[in-house]
Amino acid sequence: MSVVTAAQVVQYSDISASAGTITSSGLIDVVQDRIGIICNNRFTTELYKTSTLTFSATARTIVSGTDWDEDGFAAGDEVYVHHSYRNDGYYDVLSLSDETMTLATGESVIDELSGRTIIVSVIRWPTDITYLAAQMVAFDYDQRGERDGIKSQSLGPWSETYGMLTLGYPEGIINGLSSYRIVEVA
Question: Is the pLDDT of residue 162 over 70?
Answer without folding.
Answer: no
